[in-house]
Design goal:
This protein has helices spanning 12-22, 88-107, 140-159, 181-190, 209-222, 239-249, 276-282, 290-299; strands at residues 3-7, 27-32, 48-52, 71-74, 112-118, 162-168, 170-172, 195-196, 203-204, 206-208, 228-231, 237-238, 256-257. The chain is of the alpha/beta class. It has 2 domains: 3-171 and 207-231, 3-Layer(aba) Sandwich (Rossmann fold), CATH 3.40.50.720; 174-205 and 235-299, UDP-galactose 4-epimerase, domain 1 (Alpha-Beta Complex). β5 (112-118), α3 (140-159) and β6 form a beta-alpha-beta unit. The radius of gyration is 19 Å and the shape is globular.
């Protein structure tokens, strides 16, 4: 891989992916929403160039860079949190934009399209998630991600491009959304605020963003055409255990109230990735423990 196009590059996975790519000498073109408030999250590198382009403009964008690219990483998606996950018209727009991204990848000369899916495609499942685990999404976000993966796979095949879909579980790290459990907890606990949580009985799989980025790079190099991969750490621990680790790292062990909040409706109680196929095809394995990842965030 010599050149890559990246959308959604200002988030935890996207910004880490840029560092992973440029660290290997890969030239990166970032398609960035104009006037993005998170533009400062982009790493500084002479190998990164930015082209202002909103999702709604993908269908019109032409390649005037004078270069052809190898891999297109599509991470951008609108409405990933809160009530927007059930905004069905908005989520339907995302499916259309994903298809536009496949067409755009072809115009930029890419031979590979890699899309970011979600564990929300599965709904509630007991047991490790695999590519062939039956998918029964329970919200508009999960339904749209499932649809986008299936439709983009077919369109990429029609256009003669290699296609890979990656269902991401829970990734944390620098540049994650401020509303995420990990980011909000670190921020509030470091300020000395008390935090309320559920009992934390959920078995959860957390993956550090740098490890996720390494997986995306590995898939660009060695992922198999047409496959869906589940991306997580491959281990599950009770959420309460993660919360206690957070509190210790923030010197705020007396500031967390486990059991103070009820579980959400349709609460996912078990989340774990089966990464055996990803490891077999690419050799990738996670390297950062949760404790190490939290320390990196706090020190950043």
């Amino acid at each position: 891989m010599k050149r890559a196009v990246v959308t959604g590059a200002t988030g935890a996975v996207g910004s880490a992916l840029l560092r992973a790519l440029t660290g290997r000498g890969v030239e990166c073109l970032v398609l960035l929403r104009p006037n993005s408030a998170r533009a400062g999250n982009l790493p500084q590198s002479p190998l990164i160039s930015v082209l202002p382009c909103a999702l709604e403009e993908f269908s019109l964008l032409q390649n005037r860079t004078g270069r052809e690219y190898d891999v297109f990483y599509h991470l951008a998606w609108k409405g990933t949190t809160g009530a927007d996950r059930q905004d069905l018209p908005l989520q339907l727009e995302n499916v259309s934009h994903a298809l536009d991204a496949v067409e755009l990848a072809k115009r930029f000369g890419c031979h590979t399209f890699i899309g970011a899916g979600s564990q929300a495609e599965y709904g509630r499942v007991e047991g490790a998630l695999k590519a062939d685990t039956p998918a029964f999404p329970e919200n508009g976000y999960g339904i749209a991600k499932l649809c986008a993966g299936q439709m983009c796979r077919e369109r990429a095949k029609q256009l003669g491009m290699r296609f890979i879909w990656t269902r991401i579980l829970s990734v944390y790290g620098p540049n994650d959304g401020a509303q995420s459990m990990i980011s909000s907890a670190i921020s509030k606990l470091l300020r000395g605020e008390r935090m309320k949580f559920t009992k934390g009985e959920q078995m959860w799989d957390y993956l550090y963003s740098e490890d996720a980025a390494e997986a995306f790079y590995a898939l660009g190099e060695g992922g198999k055409d047409g496959k869906t991969y589940v991306l997580g750490s491959g281990t599950a621990r009770p959420l309460a255990e993660y919360i206690r680790i957070l509190a210790r790292a923030c010197n705020a062990e007396g500031k967390v109230d486990l059991g103070a909040l009820p579980y959400a409706e349709r609460q996912v109680m078990y989340l774990k990735a089966d990464i055996s196929e990803l490891t077999a095809d690419t050799g990738w394995r996670p390297e950062t423990s949760f404790e190490e990842g939290i320390e990196k965030i706090i020190k950043k």
